[in-house]
Amino acid sequence: MKRTFEVTPWHVITHELKPENKRLQESMTSLGNGNMGMRGFFEEDYSGDTLQGIYLGGVWFPDKTRVGWWKNGYPKYFGKVINAINFIKLNVLINGEPIDLATDTFTDFEMDLDMKQSRLTRSFTVIKGAQKVGFKFERFISAAQKELSAIRLTVTNQGDLSVHVTFKSALDADVQNEDANYDERFWDILKTNATADTGSIVAITKENPFGTPRFTVGMKMTNVADFPADAVKNNSKEEVVNQFSGDLAPKASTQLVKRVVVLTSRDYQTQAELESAMDKLSAHVTAISYDDLFAKHAQIWADRWEKSDVEIEGDTGAQQGIRFNLYQLFSTYYGEDSRLNIGPKGFTGEKYGGATYWDTEAFAVPVYLGITDPKVTRNLLMYRYQQLDGAYHNAREQGLKGALFPMVTFDGIECHNEWEITFEEIHRNGDIAFAIFNYTRYTGDKSYVLNEGSKVLTEISRFWADRVHFSERNQKYMIHGVTGPDEYENNVDNNWYTNYLAQWTLRYTLQILGEVSDEVAQKLNVSDAEKKQWQDIVDRMYLPADKKLGIFVQHDGFLDKDIKPVSSIPADQLPINQHWSWDHILRSPYIKQGDVLQGIWDFIDDFTPAQKKANFDFYEPLTVHESSLSAAIHSILAADLHYEDKAVEMYERTARLDLDDYNNDTDDGLHITSMTGSWLAIVQGFAGMRVHDDQLHFKPFLPKKWTSYQFRVLFRGRSIQVHVDGDGAKLTLLSGDPIEVELNGEKKQL
Questions:
Q1: What is the pLDDT of residues 285-339, one digit of tens each?
Q2: Active-site residue, 487 included
Q3: Helices and strands (H and E) in the chain: how many
Q4: Which residue is catalytic, options 487, 620, 626, 652?
Q5: What is the pTM of this model?
Q6: Are 197 and 229 in contact (CB under 8 A)?
Q7: I need a surface site. Which of 28, 609, 625, 697 has the fewest CB within 10 A?
Q8: CA of residue 212 relative to chain centroid, distance
Q9: Closest C-alpha among 467, 461, 634, 480 to residue 555
Q10: Residue 417 to residue 422: CA distance in whole angstroms
């Protein structure tokens, strides 16, 4: 656990710059607008250790899969987000010497991420001999104009002598990725252009042998400075530079404003169309003042916070944690583009390839349902529907029918290169089906499930029906050779969660097939024989259980392990994924994240209190929580069982996972999808919110450390405020038609 930023309600702020924490600080101060984003690296060159990263939504490259032993069905490439052209580059020279905080003497350092308005500000004073010069960088990525990023730099001469200041504002395509096989460069320059105060680059991702699309990107900068422009000869074909310089009198200040528009071929058919749009948009935003551009951006964030803010009194650390997580989640995705999704690292780093995982359906969907317009979640569902062709391909690669949605993807084709994850962690198919059910249950809107959704469910069910096998000895259907959510167990037989989801999906699909229109049913073309087979699987699915312990068994053979709690592991061997061999981990009983408990959370109202208690009491002591997705599930279930101290402990872990670097792995990017966990822990955990029988239900409790908490949920056209303090809970209908809810078992009319 490492805390490098101060604990404040609306800001992530530090007054220290320590080289050993530089990457961690860059992750924490990442910005994004759903269309693009960047780590909080410096605008100016920094000669110390840094991970410069700018990423564009939907722009990726197929990195060749490298394995020692090729297996039939292996993905041919690992899709990865690529580091985009560095468009924030802005070097400053003082009397001809560049500033570099890795080597310069400086004071008064401050780095401040304002979460309320989504702006990163950095200020410091550099001392070079007799000169003392102050700097203030302000940066935002516009939520109002998805293609726009803007920087304002203010330089103040704090000394008693005049100083010569030079600005070098650039677009630099000489970038590389760290998380790639060959340290390759990915951009081929098509065109550059520069005037005295503007510059542009048009580049295309290099050719690849896999037939995946190449992406063209156009960037144009406009620089407005107090100083006059210098004549610059741009010798490098990979960099375009505008330069401005002048003398700055003692106590005087000067400014430069840099606007950059970023367009990609995802939105334009030809390079000519892209360039034309780039020029028009650049002229448009240049005609608007920096302050007005920022005001439009800040207003959108104000509207978002109005719907989603969670207010906590009595615990500033908890307050900062939930806001930080919601802020970074919304910076990654707010539903504007159904072609995009939520990568586990978002726009904050390269790990996990920047692609889509099952985290979206399992963890992000319930949050977006509660605090955004339903169309945001519907776009997440449409993302999968639009990629059905890829899911067919993935199933065929394994010799199976139906659709296998990918573990990792940009375009629907599986592009992850670990066999035990890629083609064994197939529970994701059920998670996607569950998200359709979750959306329908919460919104009451059946238009998706009875149309596009029924197609997704049908093809997933065809996959499950082909993937199971029938055990003559047990007269049960089984699923062998899988990995459940607990990735510390690979290639197991009859993972309870996987089998349960397969059974549930088939049952749910059969229900929906009974509701679709004749026209849709004809298109789906599910035969009576198929339906009969699916029902037989539902009726005779094997679900491992132990009657003596009263638990669902995680998989065949799990109880034959040397069952000892995590508390028996010496502290210097934790986390085990950084100290033990993989063989040691696989043989141990230790669980990376909720597995059986994931299923109990999904279907929490379908299990008795005794079942929930027995399984939680057995599995939680064996869980090392070394997945960022782990703590939230345990917090919700602990709250459901009235284990309030454990619920709060797990909330604090999920809320401040990155802020306090719990797992010592935040320096290469934030855990975006797990950031859903803090909202889930408060709303589903502490407030006990459930949806069943078309009605909202609440059973709130107040954590001992807190004075009160308050949040809003959107539900079927209503906005409802929930306030919980020492006197109990109060529900208020803020907008929409009257509605009946249940609070602590009693019906209430709002």
A1: 999 999 999 999 999 999 999 999 999 999 999 999 999 999 999 999 999 888 9
A2: yes
A3: 20, 32
A4: 487
A5: 0.95
A6: yes
A7: 609
A8: 24
A9: 480
A10: 7
